[in-house]
Prior knowledge:
By secondary structure, the protein is of the alpha/beta class. The protein folds into 3 domains: about 5-60, 2-Layer Sandwich (Alpha-Beta Plaits); about 60-190 and about 260-335; about 195-255 and about 345-384, no CATH class. It contains 15 helices and 14 strands. It is globular and about 50 Å long. The termini are far apart.
Amino acid sequence: MVICNDKQRCTGCSACLSVCPRSAIRIVEDSHGFYRPTIDESKCVECGLCQATCPANGSTSNDLKMGPRRVLAYQASDAERAKSSSGAAFWTLATYVLDSGGIVYGACFDEDFRVVQRRCSSVDDAQACRGSKYSQGFVGSSFTEAYNDLKQGIDVLYSGTPCQVAGLRSFLSNKNFSGRLITVDLICHGTPSNRLFREYIAFLEERSGKRVVEYFHRPKDRGWGVHVEKALLDDGTALYDTIASNTWRDVFYSNNALNSSCYNCAYADVSRVSDFTLADFLGIDRVRDGLNDHKGLSVVMVNSELADHVVAAGVFDPGAIDISLDEVLPGNPMLERPSSPQGNVEAFWMAYEQEGFEGAARFVGAYGFVKSLKTFVKRLINRN
Length: 384
């Protein structure tokens, strides 16, 4: 039994896992750490539900797309933005649902720095879902958990990458429920292997001789719009904007570490699969004066009638203004095209297979002697 007609297009969304009536499917890591379904043939009855539900098969992805109806620039209070990667749009939607007795599903780190979809029933629970997570997330049983909540008449906000939300919507397409489902995706650059990220954490621990206890992608210590990485260590110190701690940023932007499906992403499009699409308003200074206070500004794409109703209820008041999609596009090119690798992807993974994370990092010039050499050359030039 083959689930995804083209394995290179499998996003690891887990819709097949959730829909299987025989529990014959498991999600495992492949040789590079990406999540892939595997079938226990002794349990499979070849009903075809997994194939029919897979968003990567046929035109399912296009059938799910909608909007945008309008586009907003949004910034929450200074206090809320300080805890968020951008303008705190996700947090504003999350607290709106939680305060009304709903449930929020979002991405968080577990104790081993795996990115997992967490069910959150309180504001305290949801705090871990704030901030960017730059590696592939594990959906697990969150689709079926969300469905069970919806069947009980509970409102659900489900936040994830576009491919994860497409998987959820495909899974729910023929199901009845009375709860209100609000879906939120992001303008996604692509998802690197989380195993690679975990090996990066181990790399930091080996170099520092200390344990990493908390990690932040794009913290705002130096303001919004400056991409550095930060690891908090068990002795209270931090690795912040160092050659080692920024290694993940450089591997990420090389685009060599992304899931194979990311290079032909069906969701790199102005038409979206979620009610809301969120992003940083990157490039704001090129199109608008006076909006950037360097504390974080979000783009909020309002893609559905439901999203329109949420906005009309005043959820984003008073921090939102209407903007045009044309103003968003220059700083968010993944609305028009997928990411492209900066080098030979096959050679990148070969370096990883031979030398682990350090080999992969050296391949893209992200660590060690390459960075040190550049710094040394700059110092020589400055002296002269």
